[in-house]
Amino acid sequence: MGYGDTSSDSEPQEFARSEHGSDEETSSSASESGDEKEALTFEQMEALRLNGGLSQQAMKSLLQRQKEKERSRSFKRDNKNRPMEMSSKRPVPRLREVVQAAKKERRDPRFDSLSGALQQDRFRKQYAFLYDEQLPAEKEELKSTLQKTKGADKKLELQAQLTRVQQQIQEERSKRRKEAWEAEHKRKEREAVKGGKGVFFQKRSEKKRQELIRRYEELKATGRLEKVMAKRQKKNAAKDHRYVPSARRQAA
């Protein structure tokens, strides 16, 4: 074969290579344009479709591929110190922990089991100074301040504070007397059980009746029985007066 034959054989090969290269370039450009279209938003794809650059079916397929890509996306953190990426498809809760910080445990010793059970006797002994020293001193101070005060409003305020302190002292004394009486009653019952008597659980009504008897004897011994009885009668009369007809009230 001559020189001309060699050139004629090489031309189809070069033409085939050029055609093959053009096919690769076309496919690469098509894939790039497809990737660019997939990266477009819905508004951009809609504008492109209206301009004639994208058909309705192509837009639907692109949207479907984007949805599948979004569903397959993982929202795991690459590093534990980074905040977790959340999907925009779900509503954000109102109270959301943005930064995961160490929580401080706060406890109330009044309601915590670590504090142990309440020991009433020990508690009263530890805080007995409040009723034996602090409140009586506050009572005397309020009395002296009340005598020196001249304003009516200030006097009413000091008198209310003094009444409250006196009630606290009186209630504590009543509690102590009641506890002492119950402790004495339990001691007698224990001695009776040791002597051979059967175990006896007192009824609530009987306990209340004995409490009234004890209080009556105590008031009688201190000389305050007549004053308390007069106050009680006045209170009961005021209660009964509510049930009296209005005509009889005016006549009286």
TrEMBL record:
It comes from Coccomyxa subellipsoidea. Residues 14-23, 65-83, 170-194 have a biased composition (Basic and acidic residues). Signal peptide: none annotated. Associates with 90S and pre-40S pre-ribosomal particles. Residues 1-10 have a biased composition (Polar residues). Its main location: nucleus. Belongs to the RRP36 family. Coiled coil: none annotated. This is rRNA biogenesis protein RRP36. It holds the Pfam family RRP36. InterPro entries: RRP36 (IPR009292). Keywords: Nucleus, Ribonucleoprotein, Ribosome biogenesis, rRNA processing.
